[in-house]
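Sample entry (381 residues):
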Amino acid sequence: MKSIISVSRYIVGILFIFSGLVKANDPLGLAYKMQEFFEVWAQSGWLPGLMHSMNDYALIFSVMMIAFEIIAGVAVLVGWKMRLFSWLLLLLIIFFTFLTGYAYLSGKFRSCGCFGDCIPLSPKASFLKDIVLLLLILLIFSYRNKIKPTLSALGSIGIIIISGVFSVWLQWHVLKHLPVADCLPFREGNNIPEKMKIPANAIPDSTVITFVYEKAGATIEFTSDHFPDDFDDSVYHFVKRYDKLIRKGNAEPAIKDFVLTTLSGNDTTLPVLSDPAYNAFIFIKDDPGAGEWVKALETLYPVLEQHQLHLFVVTNNAEGIKTFFQNLPGVTFLKCDVVPIKTAARANPTLYLLKQGTIMNKWSFADWDDAITAIPVLIKK
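Predicted structure, serialized as tokens:
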């Protein structure tokens, strides 16, 4: 039994550390997934006021949850404070199992964000994973008093502190400088128009036409192939018809709802993305305020002008940010929905260098000094 407990600890510890590190690469992604859950619950009538207010704290919840995952995984591996961490792990996995179970059974989510965008799992796979982890953690919980630490108290505390500091530092770093591993559809080298198309080998949704009728006060559903034997218009009263999903496909483009419009509302997506010349794009979400990016822009813009790069500002808040560009001639503002901007710009704002819709490179506002050096090299290739 001792060896079984040890193997269970290693599996749980390594999985929690791995899961935390993958999510730490993109904490905003987990925060957006949390907001998606909050929105669905609010629409379902689950304390809508509370759910909407929690949206503002999603990033804080994300950073804390990721840090705890990593710390808990390390604690399990070294066997430190198992009475405490076995309880915390049990509560956490019950919560995770509820989330993944809800995502799977409700059918309202395509993924649960368990391993971020780098390792997308279906809701069913996520739920089954958490069921296995729940069983392993229950085993660890049952024998928590017999698990002895593998390091001294000082060594255990030291490695726990290091893991906690590292997890917070990594998240701070990627929030400011973009994810270390870019697993999003707007990654360097991708062609945006191509990613807006449905893949050639995609499987469409399988649906069947379903009719809803009322008979003697009861609601009855049936398909066009299975009409009731006693069907009669005088007995059955039509309510509605709809397409019932039988099998979920994957016929969706990697980049969805990416529409660029002029300030007057004209769709200019394809003309802009088909330009064979090099162009600079700055993606800005909401109103980032007059932070360090404004000073960085003052240094960046002359370089763009020098190399004859037209600057497009893609935003969901053109009126709110125009003041930051009022002294920069030749800037074109394009409106875009906030959802694709969230995916394109994990740091707010983010600079892109595009050629005919292909992403040559991108930089967080904190790295625009690097962009100033890199852009002349890239456009000469």
